[in-house]
Please model this.
Amino acid sequence: MSDTPVIGVLALQGDVREHLIALASADALARPVRRPEELAEIDGLVIPGGESTTMSKLAVLFGMMEPLRERVRAGMPVYGTCAGMILLAEKILDPRSGQETVGGIDMIVRRNAFGRQNESFEAAVEVDGVDGGPVEGVFIRAPWVESVGAEAEVIAEHGGHIVAVRQRNVLATSFHPELTGDHRVHALFVDMVRTVK
Model:
């Protein structure tokens, strides 16, 4: 069996191309995923940044929400960045009307917690499980995690706030590592997929 996992990037909205590049550089076979039948052909999935309310509504519209929930419950590894983190939360503190989540991490998130688009910033973030020093994180209208349940492991904080969490096969960061050219967080996720595959 090939040691190269097939990892999809949910391609309903958001920075799909950057994740495809980061995954490929971390030795995964990366492909966009838009339909439930494509979801069935992958070993792991990245839910990119974008606009979480729009992504939630599109996932329902394209018939992806229930299949996504089922695959996550069945143990498929998933990594969400920014809006992807929001979609992987069990609870959103200030959800927009009709906003649903996929779930997977026992955490409560606050949308746009770090401020508006014009308050975006980059910061060095120490991430547990990522060797070689801090990861450069890009925070764009980023959420943070207000609290986590007993099974969720906090793996990074910034400014006193939780910005990266892992629960079994599910990983989430409030920042965008795919925008920096540093693909170590993606490599961590590819390793997670390999151990399950």
Notes: The longest strand covers residues 161-167. Residues 184-196 form the longest helix (13 residues).
